[in-house]
Amino acid sequence: MGPTIRGRWGGPMSGVILRFGQVEFDRARERLSVAGKPVPLDRFSLAIFRVLLAHAGEEVSKDALLEAGWSGRVVQENSLAKAVGRLRSALGDDGIALETVHGRGYRLAAEVVETKAVVPPASRRRYLAVLAMLAAPVIAGATIMGLRGTERHVVSSESPGAVGRVLWVDDHPENNETEKRFLGERKIAVYQVGTTADAVTLLPMYEYGAVISDMGRGQQPLAGLQLLQAMRERGDERPFVLYTVHTSPELRRQIAEAGGQGVAENEDELYRTILPVFGLRPGKSAPRD
Fold this sequence. Notes:
CATH class of the largest domain: Alpha Beta
Mean pLDDT: 79
Structural class: alpha/beta
Low-confidence stretches: 1-7, 9-14, 133-157, 284-289
Number of helices: 9
């Protein structure tokens, strides 16, 4: 965990909205909105944003921000600069308030106002359902309410002693039951969501070891490629595998150029690509406790 840095809003987070310009940050949910629209943040940008908000108007050193975002890891200052750049972009027109203090650090030069969040009962139920999903180690067929108020079914094959977790993004999860069972037998937990928006929201919140995605979803024929691009733009380098029945050399080239680990068009190809991520070989039995 990162350092405990207390500023004006260093106390309990529940029910607090921080605002400046068109920016709103729900501290309890760690959710950013700009001009009324939700904006996802990668985990590094989110970590430094929390610190800058807590010390709005004050200079925050590079060391403090590096510790907040990459605690215990040796990284270059360039990693911090890139995360700040992504944060500025996420803040839209108000990104200008994130000032560089040359040679020393950064400052959020904005008057941040604290207000109490008013959470409708239905929204509160959805939020608690998401938290329950993330906190519970074993979930099977759990139903939560999605970000747009429609039902989502999050299915996990996690068992005690799981070697890792996969986030599987597919609007037809029923097509992947055989593969999910295969991975579950090898103690790889599978969490399934149906949209890119849900995936982008969940990825910074939970330690998934890899992402598997289909290509087309609904009216978005390039949804899988766009998810991969969104991950890499946010600095998320987790392994990504596209699983689709229709592939081509050009598709494989585009996925590789976007930073993906592979394209699989059948079960065997999927297993050959995803199992090594978790230190397993295709056909290898599940590790014993």
